[in-house]
Amino acid sequence: MRPEIAISWHRCRDQYRVDPQLAKAPAAVAEVDHGLEHDVVIAELGFRAAAMAHEVSTVGGIVTIADSTGRVLAQWGDQGTRAAAAEANLARWFCWSEAATGTNGMGTALMSYTPVLIRGAEHWCQVLHDWTCAGAAVRDVVTGKPVAVLNISCWRGELPGTVSTWLGNAATMTQRILRQRARDDGAELMAAFNHVRSGSSAALAAVDPAGRIVLADDTAGVLLGIPGSTPAPDPAVRWKPELPEFIRAARYAAEQAARNPDWAGSTQIYTRLASEPTAISFRPVFLSGHLVGNIVLFGVSEGDPLPRAGEDAPSRTHSRRMVATRENRMVLLRTPEVSFAQSDGNDVWLSTDEGPLRSASLGLDRLEAELSDAGFLRVHRQYVVNLSRIREVERRDKGELVLVMDDRAATMVPVSRRNTPTVRRALEI
């Protein structure tokens, strides 16, 4: 079994508890609140799907688009195949997320950053074993969250070998729309930043919903560990603060503001070069009704208090498991069993009590995001470490830090200069 299928099955069995004998997909939630940018993406995918419908029909296939919840919105293609699909509720207004219907082209693509191909018995539910499905999700270029998914399915037949390439290209072309909208959002954040700066003496930063900085003044830049007065409206080059606590607060603030446009909040964080916590406040910024980010004011406390670290997820870190692969097997690891993670090109290797294992997570950035609240910290562009597995800290002649891990090899992990202040605060040294 391919590792990505094994991981999907693990989710279906242990996380979602999907019945493999499920005969039909369940009905989707009646109403889902989509933003304007989501509707634009879905319309673009619909255009591309309709243009491909004739070619797909010649091989007995159907093309389907669904939203980020897995709710089917439209379908084109071979009429006979559509009739067979209807028997399993592969039709409009039914839900095909993994949590609802197990491993399938649409649901599994929504969980993946690359196109997926699900063949026959790789589907979790037995009723789908006559199907071959391929799907690709379009993701928000700022948050990385799925917006919609495009899927091609074939009943009792094989899909063309080029289907994954076509799906990937369609998703990439569609994401260009989101990238341009994100640039517009960045320009709006910068305009809001300048407006607030004209009436406030506080240090300011404009932060997007993912916690990355579009613009900060010189003082805020020093506090966040990023260049000050250097605009970055393009989502591909926005600044990432050196403060994980700030990023978590910014993401929480974005979630609250998206639900309630009148929301404003504040908290305290430790910033660079400060021995005492600093108050920060979040003011939401909207463009055409959708949230583009927040203006952060330093030294100001106004609005609802944000939960302190651990208050909103008290036990999540203790039950967290990591997934790794060894040959054709999936290995489930508890976080204390992992000493550190190291990137090697596109692969991520975990140093574990069982020896080195390849992580199922795609890329060190994604693994860092998954483990940021589980006691792991990015210390170098190639390393994420388990803070509880650090045995010694060595200080070199020029002030560089090296972490000596408690694995059998006593591996020495370098700390980059830009991450040194964050490591010192995390270890209280």
Account of the protein in words:
With 429 residues, the chain is α+β, with helices and mostly antiparallel strands. The chain has 11 helices and 21 strands. The chain has helices at 3-16, 36-57, 79-87, 98-101, 105-110, 163-197, 218-224, 244-259, 316-319, 364-371, 420-427; strands spanning 61-67, 72-77, 116-119, 131-139, 146-155, 203-207, 213-216, 265-269, 278-287, 290-298, 304-305, 321-326, 329-334, 338-344, 347-352, 355-359, 376-380, 383-386, 390-395, 401-405, 412-414. A 7-stranded antiparallel beta sheet has the order 13-12-16-15-14-18-17. A 6-stranded mixed beta sheet has the order 7-6-10-9-8-11, with helices on both faces. A 5-stranded antiparallel beta sheet has the order 2-1-5-4-3, sandwiched between helices. Helix 2 (36-57) runs antiparallel to helix 6 (163-197). The two termini are 46 Å apart.
Radius of gyration: 23 Å
Number of H/I helices? 11
Quaternary structure: single chain
- What's the arrangement of strands in the largest beta sheet? 13-12-16-15-14-18-17
Biggest beta sheet attributes = 7 strands, antiparallel
- Average pLDDT value? 88
Poorly predicted ranges: 310-319
Total E-strand runs:
21
Name the beta content range: 25-35%
Span between termini: 46 Å
Structural class designation: alpha+beta
* 3D shape: globular
Helix-residue proportion: 25-40%
Q: In a nutshell, what does this entry contain?
A:
With 429 residues, the protein is an alpha+beta fold. The protein has helices at residues 3-16, 36-57, 79-87, 98-101, 105-110, 163-197, 218-224, 244-259, 316-319, 364-371, 420-427, and strands at 61-67, 72-77, 116-119, 131-139, 146-155, 203-207, 213-216, 265-269, 278-287, 290-298, 304-305, 321-326, 329-334, 338-344, 347-352, 355-359, 376-380, 383-386, 390-395, 401-405, 412-414.
